[in-house]
Amino acid sequence: MLPALPALRQTASQIGPRALAAATHTLVVLPAATTLGSLREASGAVPALDQLVRWMKRRGTKAGELAKAPVAGSLPNGGLVSFVTFDLKQARFEQHTALRKGLQPLLDEHPVHLTIAVCGNPGQRRLAAEQALYVAWVNSLPLPTHGRKKTKPVASIRLYGARDAGGFARAAALARGNLLARTLTVMPPNELTPGAYRRALRGLARQLKLRHEEFGFASLKRMGAGAFCAVAQGSEPQDAAIVHLWWRHPRAKRSVALVGKGICFDTGGHNLKDAKGMHGMHEDMNGSAVALAALVVARSLQLPLQIDCWLALAQNHIGPASYKQNDVVKALDGTSIEIMHTDAEGRMVLADTLALAARRKPALMIDFATLTGAMVHALGNRYCGVFASSDELAAQAVAAGRASGERVAAFPLDEDYDVALESKVADVRQCLIAGEADAILAARFLKRFTHGTPWLHLDLSAHSCAGGLGAVATDATGFGVAWALALLDAPAGGAR
Fold it and tell me: What pLDDT, on a 0 to 100 scale, did the predictor assign at position 496?
């Protein structure tokens, strides 16, 4: 289930003419420069630099533009080389975008072997190598397709100019996590049903020696998880479940709960979506894939944490048994909920899952969900919205976005929004029919079920972005995996 990345061969020596002549597809990462003269001075004896200068002069390209507009061309031996600059002053998102654009003409030819050469002083080369490898690994394996024409993955990457004894383990772990999240997300809904997902998770738990338990539909009904069961009851077979995976480092300092929305297909229920709205709803389980991948990466990097991962796996179908408007259901913690709209199912399954996770009293709880169209309207597909139970956590979340290249914007979570969720027949309304401030109201609704636990809610509006985003070239972005690790592994991170 875990993707196998291309093998890495690395050397601290800079690439020479013979090695460049033997390579078929090469990315040359140069230090930032404002003039061609300073570019030559900072880069050192880079083969084909004269060729680059001639190409740039012909195109009228300035040295400073290489960070945004890489230059690619063919060498006399027939190899393809792409030049890009890595600017330490740029934000991580901009660095990743530049590297992705530099790699794109090479990857478009589906090379078997890829060469990366980093230039500059030792510090520049080390940082550039780590980020270039992450971007290359993330984009080196094709996502699953069912067409007859198959794309071969990159088999190996040769790195010149930098060397790491651990094989750049962090970049590799993050790339594997991102690929895992995207692979699950793009799977068709007739393949990734809740039952199939549960079987895959059992296999992953055995592979990685994770602790594992499942709360099936019948068990959840007996427990009183009426919010989750309301959504799941309309589906046949009734294979929905809350799956709990956990791992503890021997020197764990604090505990973290990762919660993921795993709606494997969302019809909207009785409030049925139209064809346009329903297309792509197999990706409504993306939050669960991100939470799972974050657990896998944290375990791979041996972060000193206990991590409990709670995945709410279900489908939202229409049928005689489906829940409907004006139903009143009781959640796991006893909260009664008035159903206003059956297409607001994500907050329902998350309510019981958060309540279940909160019982273990983690130091921090983070939930990931493709929750609201309102967030897409607010931010588009290039940022995600984050809600936090404290200003300190909100600041840490935004800082993690800058550090990871997965940008988030903090949204308000003020208590006076609760007036909109007051119900005459239950403790709380599920949502408003009109949808005003829906992303905020959804977060206020979810907060009730965290029971005072420090909490972050990531509304994954950037889980898909046409043409790619940041480091990732596919529409499915895997957004949230790198963000979560930057947050959990920061010196002042929410989990420390």
Answer: 39
